Amino acid sequence: MLKRLALALALVGVLPALASAHGPSRQKVVSSIEINAPAEKVWAVVGNFQDMSWHPAFVKTEGKGGNDPGATRTLTLENGGTIEEALIKRSDEDRSLGYEITKVDVKNVPVSNYSSTISVKGTAEKSIVEWRGAFYRGYVNNDPPPELSDEAAVKAITGVYQAGLAALKKKLEAGG
Amino acid sequence: MRALGLSLLAGLGLVSLTARAPCFAGQALVTNQPGDSLSIVDLTTMTAEPEIKIGGKPAGVALSPDKKTAYITAPEGEELVEFDAVGKTVKRRLKLGGAPVGVAAHPSKAEIYVADWYTHKIRFVDTNAFAVVTDVQVGQSPSGLAVTPDGKLLLSADRDSNQVSIIDLASRAVVATVPVGERPFGITIDAVGARAYTANVASNDITIIDISGRAAIGRVATGRRPYAVALAAGLGFSTDQYSGTLTVFDLASLTALKTIEACDHPEGIEANTAGTEIYVACWGDNLLLRIDALQLVITGKASVGDGPRAFGKFLR
Fold this sequence. Notes:
The complex is a heterodimer. Chain A is an alpha+beta fold. Chain A has one domain: 2-Layer Sandwich (Alpha-D-Glucose-1,6-Bisphosphate, Chain A, domain 4). In chain A, 23% of the residues lie in helices and 36% in strands. Chain A contains three helices and seven strands. Chain A has a seven-stranded antiparallel sheet. In chain A, helix 1 (2-9) packs antiparallel against helix 3 (150-173). Chain A starts with a helix and ends with a helix. Chain B has one helix spanning 2-20, and strands spanning 27-32, 37-42, 47-48, 52-53, 60-63, 69-74, 79-84, 89-95, 100-105, 111-116, 121-126, 131-137, 142-147, 153-158, 163-168, 173-179, 184-189, 195-200, 205-210, 215-221, 226-232, 235-240, 245-250, 255-261, 266-271, 277-282, 287-292, 297-303, 311-312. In chain B, a hairpin with a 4-residue loop joins strand 2 and strand 3. Chain B is globular and about 45 Å long. Chain A binds chain B through residues 19-21, 24-28, 88-89, 98, 100, 115, 117, 132, 134, 141-142, and chain B through 33-34, 57, 59, 75-76, 78, 98-99, 101, 117-118, 140-141, 159-160, 183, 202, 224-225, 241-244, 264-265, 283-284, 306-307.
């Protein structure tokens, strides 16, 4: 799992990111997983914006602002690359949080203008965690190189979500 | 004052409902970008007909003056698609190249305007010949387009130049540029052609432009990443993509009044002609929402295809 994720993330893109334009069509990834653990317990883990240690792709989370809208965090990848993110909204009632990437090198994650919501639904016994992403590819013009195409962007984000949700399930079902 | 306005508008709404009920209840033509299709939604029942394939990842939409023909941009197909909204079929396709995104129709002439996101120009298309007749160069990455109700001016939100270009449609020349907030995307002109409103994606606000004065006259803060603006009942409504909200603001005082929790990535937004209802395409949840413009609550939801954008004027 980790190896596949590393492959998805280890990209060879060399395009200097332009200021703000983006590809023509926004991409969507929705991944979910069922976890045999109470929703409250699952939310206690994924609802903490300042701790992504449940995800195997990130070796470190550093941030400030706690769980309030506007809070920031920097995730460090195994290769030393970083992803800077900001919390947009968070609700304990809905067990949902929305965040965006504010800075990332397309060599590490081949996307631009990325926003995401992670939410937990369920009961005292069982939970469904859903992770949704909205983003453009890393290349901002027509005819992208393959490593910065729509397909590459979707593949990378799908890899991040699936690896993270699988690790989360394992951790929580083990009673962690 | 507000109470009087409400009762007047409610009265108008009733009249309009009675007048249109026997024949045509109104539809939304919703472009589903990843779904590669169009959803036609009946606005009375809030149900969509089966999706119609468009191709090229459709995004922008505009309607002919008689509202019988829709013009749809397909950025990945690099095409403009002419769609018969009565017969519900694709009529013609025009390969434009680049990345056509925003589109607007002239209120009376057989002419439409398409913004090319990559080559920074506005394509003028004669809808009889269905061919480009001229191009007008504007700022970087033109996005939203809107024509004044008198048909004299075209406004382009030049996203990556942080400005609006004002184009005189008779001379087909840019006559002014107005600096706005950061990365304006959608642009909406009011019913009398006095003001324009840009949704500024990066500065998270709306710029209000006095069109005849050719100047920005105010700003209103929104949620994260506003996409476009609708106007109704003396209020403005922005779709805040990342926040999942609509910011409601008063058009007279230019102050925010309320935030409505809407959906995942609300995008295309338009008010009905009576100004009683607002319709919002929800890119993330594949829904079209109906919002009561007076009560400011969601009153209906229709399931549509995948990734609805409805960028432009999509109600008929």
